[in-house]
Amino acid sequence: MKNIFIITKREFLTQVKKKSFIILTLLAPILLIGFGALIAFMLKANETEYTFNVIDKSGVFQQNMKTPKDVKFIYLPESTEQALTTTLPEMVDNVDGLLIIPKLQDQNFENLQKQTQLLVNKNIGFDVKQNIAFSMSEVIKKEKIKNLGLTEAQIENIDKNFEINTKNVVDNNKQDSTLAFGVKSGLSMGLMYVTFMFIIIYGVRVMRSVLEEKNNRVVEIIISSVKPFELMMGKILGVTLVALTQFAIWITMTILGAIFFNQGFSKISGNLPQQEEIPLDKLDIQGVFTEISHSLLDMNFGIIIFVFIVFFLLGYIFYSSMYAAIGSAVDNETETQQFTMIGILPLMLGMYGSFGLINNPEGPMAFWLSIIPLTSPVAMIARIPFGVPVWQIALSIFLLVISTLGMVYLAAKIYRVGILMYGNKATFKELWKWIRTS
Helix, strand, coil proportions of the chain in percent (round to 5)? Predict the structure, then answer.
């Protein structure tokens, strides 16, 4: 144990003293937020406002059709149709198209749809065409309802959305709003993706470290002083502490940020009607962050943090042991490719399978993905923001602990032989031989 502690301490201090580690740890959250803002800015910058001339021969749409987002309608008399059609190809900078709506005869809306034309002089987005069609469909729907003898007030009452109030009796009888569900979904996907990426990144780092020491023959000197198992575990635990240090700093920054923004929640919520949500497009940026921060603090983040750390730790040790064994069994990085997919595929299965957990976090697929040790490090973390029964968490941890100990045992057998083996191309048959004979 003493040698494992010494090697762990060396690996940990070597990593955390690097300037790159300090800079990345402190700036990563800021860079992540900045990257998200950049993506949002790029999407916003790519938006274009389209201008369409409209000839409404039916006389129905001009007063009743709502203008879609990023679209401007200019209604013109029917007498200008010929001139507008002729000059449309030349009006590239001013007008993007001409919407011609025919006369409505005998309330035949089917013929109206067939004869309506949208003439354009450039490529326009598919969503723009869909939004225009949706706006026209709304008008047609109301006209059809009017023909049934209903008043405008009755039509509005028909179109009124039905809001259902959902209460989770397990979660302190608190109502799950749309925003709260969105925050849980985002947190679920974020934690799952971070776990997936860090297990892969740090697992590969352990594999490369083992492979580098093996190729430099440094390991031959180290093995004379410590046992191969102690060297392997020291490397794994050292890198594990590095990852946990980063997570601890990021979790602290997230909680402090949430508390800071949450201070303004009472001011915003005090001006709202009871059980009524704020449309996000009516909130400023600070208001949105305030709402999100309150939703985060309203969760049981203690159990979320506990599950995240435990499953990341066990999952990392499980897969890092596998990667350490791979690094000891091969002579170069090219040979690692035939083995690394063994570790990546189960994690990918758990990650992509977890995308469906949002709609049904308690379904059978969600249950088995979060119980099976190969996928539970990412699947259970994806489920935990939505709430998971304690017995399922305990069962999953128990199975993952047993599997991790078994993987460490097998990896140690491969590591013990492979770390001093040169010039022998490792195969699955050869690895099985090492496990049986070591």
Answer: 70, 5, 25
CA-closest candidate to residue 210, choices 420, 403, 362, 407: 420
Written as tens digits, the pLDDT of the chain (438 aa) is 777 777 777 777 777 777 777 777 777 667 777 777 787 777 677 677 888 888 888 888 888 888 888 788 888 888 888 888 887 777 666 788 888 888 888 778 888 888 888 888 777 777 888 888 888 888 888 888 777 777 767 767 776 776 666 665 655 545 555 666 777 777 778 888 888 888 888 788 778 777 777 777 666 566 666 676 777 777 778 777 877 787 778 777 776 766 665 554 444 444 444 444 444 444 445 555 566 565 555 666 778 888 888 998 898 889 888 888 887 777 776 667 777 777 788 888 888 887 777 777 778 888 888 899 988 999 888 888 887 888 999 999 999 999 998 888 888 887 777 776 766 666 667 777 777 775
Pair 51, 76: CB distance under 8 Å:
no
Terminal alpha carbon distance of the chain: 21
Nearest to 121 by CA among 99, 140, 150: 99
The candidate with the shortest Cα–Cα distance to 339, out of 235, 234, 210, is: 210
d(CA 186, CA 178): 12
Q: Which helix (H) or strand (E) holds 90?
A: none
Are the beta carbons of 112 and 104 closer than 8 angstroms? yes
Structure tokens at 129: 């065409």
- 96 with 51: CB under 8 angstroms? yes
- The residues pairing with 51 across neighbouring beta strands, listed in sequence order, are 72
Q: Is 267 exposed, middle or buried (0-12, 13-18, 19+ CB in 10 A)?
A: exposed
The pair phi, psi for residue 52, each rounded to 5°, is -125, 130
Calpha distance 285→298 (Å, rounded) = 20
CA distance 32 to 35: 5
pTM: 0.62
